[in-house]
Prior knowledge:
The structure holds two protein chains of two kinds. Chain A has helices at about 30-40, 65-70, 90-105, 120-125, 140-155, 170-185, and strands at about 5, 45, 80-85, 110, 115-120, 135, 160-165, 185-190, 200-205, 220-225, 235-240.
Amino acid sequence: MTIIRNHSDTHFQYQSQYQPSQGNAMHDGGSSDIDELLQDNPALWRGCDMAGQGTTGRSTGFTQLDAILPGRGWPEKGLMEVVTPHWGMGELQLLIPLMRSVVEQGKWILWISPPYLLYAPALVQAGINTEQVLVVKLDTSCKDALWSMEKALQTENCGLVLAWQNWLPTKVLRRLQLAADTGDTLGVLFKHHDSEHSPSPIRLKIGDSYSENAGFNESEVTVIKARGNFRSLSANINLYQQA
Amino acid sequence: MKDPDSEAQLPLPSLARESGAQVIKLPASPNTVTANRPTANKASRRTPARRIRPNKLWYALFLPQLTNLAPSQQKKYLNQLAGHIQSVSSNVSFHPQALACEVRSGLKYFGGIDTIHQKLKKLLEEQLRQWDLDDNFLYAASPTISGSLLLARSGHNALVYRKENLRSALGQLPTDVLHLDREQGRRLHNMGVRYLRDIWRLPSDGVRKRFGSKFVDQLDKALGKAPEPTCNYVPPPAFITSYDLPYELENLDRVLPIVDELLAQLCDFLRRRDLSTSHLILSLLHEKRDSTAVSIGLRQASRSQQHLMLLLETHFSQLSIPAPIIAIKIEVIKFDSFIAESNSLLKEAVPRLSRRNDNSLVQFMEQLQARLGNNHIKFVRSVAQHCPEHASAQLDYNDESNQRNSIGKVKKVSNNPRPLWLLQDPVLLHINKGRLFYRKPIAILSGPERIETHWWSGADVCRDYYVARESSGSRLWIYQEKGSVKKWYLHGIFA
Lengths: 243, 495
C-alpha cells in the first residue's frame, strides 16, 4: 500500500475541527493526477489528514460527523468499533441512517446477541423493514456468536452486522476484518472499553457528558481512530433528530 | 377356488376371428406385401395363439365411508390405501371412493383370489380402524374395472372370472348403481327399466340420444366393449442408502469424504427424478449402541451437493459421537419438486437483489441454524397491539413463514416515540432526593403518553409513558403506574 504524502496542505486543516476543510483548493496543478488516484482508490489515502475528504464513504446522515470522517462517511466495508461507557448511549441512533440505506439496498442486517430485546415498532418508525432484520439471541455462546459474525460478514447479502462483544483478541478482530473484506460488508462491534491497539480501521466513542447544560440533545461523538485521520476528532451531534 | 380359464386355454373361435381381422392392411398392392414382407403373413398366423392371454381380473374395493369426507382427504386416504394394496398388485387404479387393482397376474403366486382378499382385508381394516372409519368395505372382482366397480357398488361382492359371464352378472344389478341424476332415474323408471339388463334390451343409439352417452359408455366399458382408462398409483420416491465402513472410525473428519460420496448419489437420484429435498436424516451407526442421527431440515428445498455438504460439515463441527462409527446411512424424509431458476441473458440486467442472491442468503441462514439451533435465530415483527410489550414479536426461524400470514405486515405504528430496545422486565426506578434515579439522575424530556389496555383481562395495564434523559446522555423510556402505588419503571432504552 502506498502512502503519498503531500506537504502542501497540512497546515490549515487542523485549525478547524468540525468544518470540512477547503484544503482541496490549496492543491498545486501538478497533483491533479494524484487527486484522481485518491478519488478512485479507497486503499490509497494521503498520509496527512483525510477528515472530510473524498467521497468513498457512505454518508452517516449527520453532516458534522461526515466532516470528520475520512471519505465523508462510513467505510463501505471493514470493521468498526463503537465504544460507549454503557449500552444505550445513542449508538444505534448513530447508525440508523446507515441501516436504512442498507435495507434500501435490499441487504440484511444481522444483530448478534444484542443486550436487550430489539423492539420492532421502533424499527418501523425509523423506516427499517423488519423483514430484513435477523437477530441472534443473547444467550448464544461467544464462540457461536463470533462464528455467526464471521459467516455473516462473508455473505454478500448481509449489508451490516452488529455485534455486542466486550473484549476480543487482536487475532479474532483481524479475522473478522478479513471476513468483512471478502463479503464487502460493514461490521460494527459495540464495546464498553476502548483498546488502543485494536486493528479495526475505525473506532468511535460516544461521550459521557456530565454537564447538564451542555446541549440537552447533543451527544459528543469522537472519532478515536480512522484510517486516514492522524488524530482523534470529535463532534457534537443531535442523535435524536427524529425523536 | 380354481380359475376356470386355466382349463380353457384354447383360443375361442370368436376371439380368433377378431384377432385375425386385426392384421394391418398396407395400402400398397397385395403382391408387394407378400413379396417383400413374407414374415407379416407368418406373424398374423401365429398371433391368435399368442393374443389369447387370460384376460385381466380387476379386484375393486368400494369404500362408501369416504363419501362424506373432503375430496383432498379422500385422495390422501386412497393414496395410502393404494400403498397397502401394492403388496398384492403392481397395478392400482384410482376411482371415486374406490380402488381397483389387477390381480390376475398374481393369482397363481398368492394361490387364489381368496388369499388375496384375506390379505387385503386384514391390511385395510387395520388402516381404516386407525382413521376411526367404519372398517367394512365392498369388493368385487371381474375382468373389467367398471364392471368390478359396479358389482362392488351394488354390494354383491361378486366374483366373475370370464368376460362372457359378465353380462349376466351385471344384468341383475338395479339401475341405482349407475349413479344417475334424479331426472334420468325417474325417466328410466317410467320406461319400466329396473335392472341393467333392461337397458341392454333397448336400442342403444336411442338410449344414447335420450340419456346422453355417459352411462351407456360406462356400461360398454363394464362389458369390455370400450377401453378403460386407468389412473395409476405411482409409489412415492424413497431414498435410503448406507455405507458400511471397512473399519471403525472415530474421527468425524474422516467420515466426510464418504458422506460426500453418499450425497453425490443422493443428488444424482434427485436430479434424475427432477426432485429436491427439504428434510433428510443422516445416521451414524455404532456397534451395540443407538445410532447418532443428524436431521437436516431445509427452509428451501435443495439438491445441491455443495450446500448439503456444507450443512453437514457445520453439524459435524458441533457433534460428538458416543462410540466409533461402523456405518453411515442417509435417508430422505421429504421430497419436493425442484424449482429451477432462470438466469438472465445479460449480466447487467440482473437486479440488485436477484433470486440467486436470495438463495445464497437462505443457504447462509440454514447454515446459521445448523450451528446455533433453531431457537437462537429470531425474526422480529411488529404486531398491531397497543400494549408495548406485545407490540413486538420474536419469531423462530422456522415459524416465521407460518406466522407471517397470521400476523400480517404492520406498517402503521404509533407516532409516539418508541425505543429500539425494550427491557424484558421493567426495572423499578428509585427516587433519590426527589429525583428519579437509575444509574444516574433522570430528567423527563417529554410525555406523558397514556397507555391503557388489557382491562378486559386480569392484567390491567394503565401507564403514563415519558421520554427521559439520564444525565450521562442516554435516553430512556420510563413509565409510572397509574394506580394506588405510583411507582416508576424503566421500560426501554432509545439507544
